[in-house]
Amino acid sequence: MKLNHLIVPGAAALLFIGCNQTPPQPNYNTTRRVSDQISNPVNNPNGQVSPGSPQQGGIIAEIVNYQEPTPYSYPAGYNDPTLAPNKHLLVWTTNPAQEATISWSLPDLIANTQHNVYLSEQQRNGSQLNLYEMKVPAQESGMDQACNSQLPIFQSRVTGLKPNTTYFYVIESNGQQSQEMHFVTAPANSTTSFKLFSGGDSRSDPGQRVVMNRQISSLLSQDSSYLALIHGGDFIESGSNCEQWSTWLDNHQSTMTSKGRVLPVVATFGNHESGGEAQFTALFGDPLGGEKFYFNTKIGSLDLIILNSEISVEGTQRQWLTTTMNSLAKQATFIIAGYHRPAWPAEKSPGSTTSWIPIFEQNQVDLVFESDGHVLKQTCPIFNNACNPERGIVYVGEGGLGVAQRGASQSGQWYFEGGYAIGQHHIQSLSFQMNSATPQIEYKVYYDNTSHYPLTLRKRNR
């Protein structure tokens, strides 16, 4: 069945998947061979509105009823909020099936007090810390030094975790303890289904940032199969501004559910982080050292490559990417790459990241995350500078987690035939479906309490 996907551009847009209507040209057919098929979402010919309605055979995308998270319920031992742990953050880097970095700040540091994280596979409600099977001491992350004693951040680097397991944890710091929170480790095998969020550019509007965070929290509350957020960079306006980082951390608490579910962050270095390398390292780590901020990680069936568009894309980074890709392509189920500055922009000019395109194409990457443009976009499947439904790679982005959106000035480019480019805050959702005969990624975008632009990527034959 041929699906014509219609869009009404604008902030209040609704998506209709018209089964019987024919949209105006150009209409790019993006059907791949059965073993490597993509169902393309939207035809947006230069912003024109295509006919179609639910009454004409369309299907309205699912509606998500967002709800404000309820206030936290703290344990009886939580006595003094002015001293208690706050600004909670959980980070994944190279081994999310077995490791996590748990961070927090303190409003006022008391000397000679203990700083620990207690973890258990069972819900303990924080009442008796001796019942938690794991106790991991914390150390200062380096943020206090980078911020001239303005923002102390403590971290516990937790190792030896079990894959695909829920861990409940409590932070003890300053003689106080946090509420009990929990997270789920990544699966280690390639047969477990799961979901991820993705998005970038949360930098310059804290109010809108909180709106997007609350939507993430609501989606996570409704669907516990979401495991983490892949952030595409530009967390804040100025990477060396510790007050902005403090505000971002406060705003980030809105992603936590009312039941204490914490969403791990996989971080990408953006251009607005430049100059704040020390702060970025203190919060999110630097797995390969030397302020490279590129690495690869595995989340179940996904091999995820995080690149750094703010240093040279040639030399050491390109060689690392080539070697890593060549190794992964031989055994990977899905490969996704992510970085900040777009190679196929909907706004601005192409970045130096175009240098990586041949490596992506040679190794048949499944999807690429881009940010920086402050628009919502999806390209046609691109291969060798042309739309190619057989071997092409779809590029999505470009940053809608809070920053003011732009007008998608490049929306008329050839690579948006069969795709779309509009100014719209958004959250990207990826569902890795491993239960079907052919494993697949189901991608869609959330905004205005609605899911839009469904896209299915079936496992490639590499």
TrEMBL record:
InterPro entries: Calcineurin-like_PHP, Metallo-depent_PP-like, PAPs-like, PAPs_N, Purple_acid_Pase-like_N. One of its GO terms (molecular function) is metal ion binding. Residues 86-185 form the Purple acid phosphatase N-terminal domain. Residues 225-374 form the Calcineurin-like phosphoesterase domain. Signal peptide: none annotated. The keyword RNA-binding does not apply. PROSITE patterns: PROKAR_LIPOPROTEIN. Pfam families: Metallophos, Pur_ac_phosph_N. Keywords: Signal. This is Calcineurin-like phosphoesterase. It comes from Pseudobacteriovorax antillogorgiicola.
